[in-house]
Amino acid sequence: MPYAGDLTPQQAWDLLTTDESALLVDVRTDGEWRTIGVPDASELGGRAAFVEWVTPAGPNPDFLADLARAGLTPGEERPVVFLCRSGVRSVAAAQAATAAGFGPSYNVLQGFEGDVGLDGQRGHSGWRADGLPWREL
């Protein structure tokens, strides 16, 4: 199965709210979850997992095993929507998940808070800027 491609944050939310098997996987670091916030999956029945793609020590060697612990099964046709801070790490995570048989796997364009803007700050685009549900930890 090929990598399923990119979704805008709204398209990702629409998929998650209409397909009860779809899982949101936030691949940012624990520090990002705690300081920036996380998508609020309460409207999704809690269908969200938090699996670091990169840890403070480097690439997460347990990434695929962590996906399995989150309830995913290789070969199962279950949409997986990957989200990071700006949409870069989540592309790599979605591609790795696809290669391991998870998916279809999607990347959320612009991530949770987008690229750095002209003002040197993030938050002008992405999940939060699009007004999608989120919360602080």
Automatic annotation (TrEMBL):
Coiled coil: none annotated. Residues 18-124 form the Rhodanese domain. InterPro entries: Rhodanese-like_dom (IPR001763), Rhodanese-like_dom_sf (IPR036873), STR4-like (IPR044240). It comes from Cellulomonas edaphi. This is Rhodanese-like domain-containing protein. SMART domains: RHOD.
